Amino acid sequence: MSGLQKTSVLVVGAGIMGAGIAQVAAQAGHPVWLYDMREGAAQSALDKLHASLGALVAKGKMQADDVAGLLARITPAASLQDAASSTLVVEAIVEQVEAKRALWLQLEGIVGADCVFASNTSSISITAMAQGLRHPERLVGMHFFNPVPLMKLVEVVSGLHTAPQIAADVFALAQSWGKVAVHARSTPGFIVNRIARPYYAEALALLQEQCTSPVVLDACLKAIGFRMGPCELLDLIGHDTNFAVTQSVYQANFFDKRYMPSLLQRELVDGGLLGRKSGRGIYDYAEGAAKPQLATAQTAEAPARSGVQLHGSGARMDAWGKHLTAAGVAFSHVRNSDWIGLSTPTLQLRQTDGRTASSLGANVAVFDLAFAPEGSRVLAWAPSVRASAACAAEAQSWLSALGYQPQQVADQSALVVARTVAMLINEAADAVQQGVCTAEGANQAMKLGVNYPAGPFDWLAAWSAQGVIDVLNALDAEYRGERYRVSPWLRQQACAALGST
Fold first, then answer.
1. What is the C-alpha to C-alpha distance for residues 474 and 478, in angstroms, rounded to an integer?
2. Which CATH homologous superfamily contains domain 9-186?
């Protein structure tokens, strides 16, 4: 089958996604048919597109001739038969496998045998969708992200029947449309919706256990570069939508505990607290509602002037050393220590390795990971439950003196950032292990599909496989279940690192 660079495109479904796909295809020079079973919906979508593109012309962001040419290439179809000559169909209809399969069966009697079928599904199995087709090898997933004209990522999803050449042609076509394409195997959630699950799940678990507040959770994760914290993002998506996706992934994975939905989120949904669209979710969006604020503290001076030691090596300890030197604090540096942090005669202040401060001793406090040591300074920390009030105050003073905005949370395993990022890495590692995608594909998908500040394997490179494993093992020891089991791929990476030293 030849490539699709000059193909005639039929887009089925004239909602937000379908209209966006039609726009992108027409902008790339393709003649496009836009069809919707709702009478007048295709023309209405075209009218809205005309208005939105006209506004861009008025702002000088597009040229009038370019817009006129783009719109002229999109034709509303009164019936599927109008577009029988199309050689690519992109489906963007309701997210139900029966409806999608019925469409493909209908189209097999209308279009030619060389026409490629591409589904914009975000989660439905391409293999299941192809069942019963005469030519199941021509069906492939072409998952765009909303808003289609702006979002760069396209997941090209192959089912068991999908011909490799079809996937390759659609991959090349997406690139010619100015998108970044990544190959994925048809498994629940594909790449993005699968790997992203822990970002929501760990936040909901921390809230359910009353470990901290939503505003602290959000601030800690925004401190490492996320544009929105998980609580803000859940409220924006809508808890009904997110809960439904989580349930779908959980069921599709035969109720694997790693994907188990949250009781807290179910309660929000049951109570109609869906987020921004209902006026209240995790946060209250009612007019006049008080916006929660982070606790702030003035930067303190270093509380000890003798017996100070830095432990471990790396960018964070180098930065701390410079900070202490500039503050005139004398210290020694134990670079070969088996932990990272700072000690005084009355305190051990340790970077989390997953274990709680309480399990490490009495006068101990732990602090969270930071993947940008010189970036935003919000930092979660927790003292041992056996620490004296003076010890806890000293720990907070040190963090403040080192330039952080410390946020005390409950002393639970792996705090906030370490816990969340370890689980994101672990999920991505399993996806690679199972052939869903490559490591580079996972990085691209998460950065472009959901605007993550880094890909999971970027974080892994900045951390270590053994460090992630230590955190996951500590979480597993605390919670005892399947949720925090370590990916075999990660164990292999840790073994490989040992072999190279």
1. 6
2. NAD(P)-binding Rossmann-like Domain (3.40.50.720)
- Taking the C-alpha atoms of residue 361 and residue 231, their distance in angstroms, rounded to an integer, is 32
E strand or H helix at 233, and its extent? helix 230-237
Judge whether 183 and 197 are in contact, CB under 8 Å: no
CA dist 174 → 84, 152, 331, 391 (Å): 22, 10, 56, 57
Q: Which residues contact 310 (CB under 8 A, 6 or more apart)?
A: 317, 320, 321, 324, 331, 332, 333, 334, 341, 342
- Please say whether the beta carbons of 345 and 304 come within 8 A: yes
311 assigned to active site = no
b/e map 40-65, b = 16+ CB within 10 Å: ebbeebbeebeeebeeeeeeeebeee
**Catalytic position from the list 143, 183, 239, 311:** 143
Q: Look at domain 194-288+417-501 and name its CATH class.
A: mainly alpha
pLDDT in tens, 1-52: 447 888 999 999 999 999 999 999 999 999 999 999 999 999 999 999 999 9
Work out the angle between the directed axes of helices 239-252 and 230-237 (0-180°, nearest 10): 100
Please provide the CATH number assigned to the domain covering 308-408.
Answer: 3.40.50
Please tell me whether the overall predicted TM-score, pTM, comes out greater than 0.70 for this model: yes
